[in-house]
Specification:
Pfam families: DUF2062 (PF09835). There is one protein chain. The chain has helices at 2-25, 32-38, 45-58, 66-77, 81-87, 96-110, 131-182. The protein is mostly helical. It has one domain (2-182).
């Protein structure tokens, strides 16, 4: 188990010089001092964890605004842009509806009073699933969804941050335990 994590860490560390070389040769070279200060392309524990947290939070933003939102949040938090961009891919056409239902129920928990999830069939004419019916259903979710999305995003961001921290430190903790047993 620890061997793949060590390989992943080595591979991520090997990406950093390649990213720097790419930045030196591209039109982004003029922004390199700012990018370096922001740690946007550092493949170390803290920037990776912040990038994953940013990607998990911004992954719930609708459609084409996920990546630009992640870039802004990564710049603000000094997180890794690559990790943030990859982390947004947990949302896709297959996972959007379950995530929105989960966000609705989370928002309903936070809000006072009873909230009921509208059925998708109530907004779909003839029971047909269309993009327009999905949009109407999302609007029918209302305030619980608006409250639940940022709440779910924060929970997923914290979970992503902690997971990266634990996975990064797991080989070192394993090595420490192994050395303690051998003494």
């Amino acid at each position: 188990m620890m061997q793949p994590l060590c390989r992943l860490r080595r591979w991520l560390r090997a990406l950093e010089p390649r990213a720097r070389q790419l930045l030196d040769r591209s039109w982004l070279a003029q922004f390199q001092p700012w990018l370096e200060q922001r740690a946007l392309f550092r493949f170390q524990r803290q920037p990776l964890a912040r990038g994953v947290a940013a990607g998990m939070f911004c992954g719930l933003i609708p459609g084409p605004l996920q990546i630009p939102g992640t870039l802004l949040v990564c710049a603000w938090l000094r997180g890794n842009v690559v990790a943030g961009g990859v982390a947004t891919f947990y949302t896709n056409p297959l996972t959007t509806v379950p995530l929105y239902v989960m966000a609705f129920y989370l928002g309903a928990l936070v809000m006072p009073g009873a909230q009921t999830l509208p059925a998708l069939s109530s907004v779909a004419p003839g029971g047909e699933f269309t993009v327009q019916a999905l949009g109407t259903w999302m609007q029918a979710l209302g305030t619980p969804l608006l409250i639940g999305l940022p709440t779910l995003g924060l929970l997923l961001a914290v979970l992503g941050y902690v997971t990266v921290q634990l996975l990064w430190l797991a080989p070192a903790l394993h090595r420490k335990r192994r050395l303690a047993r051998s003494r």
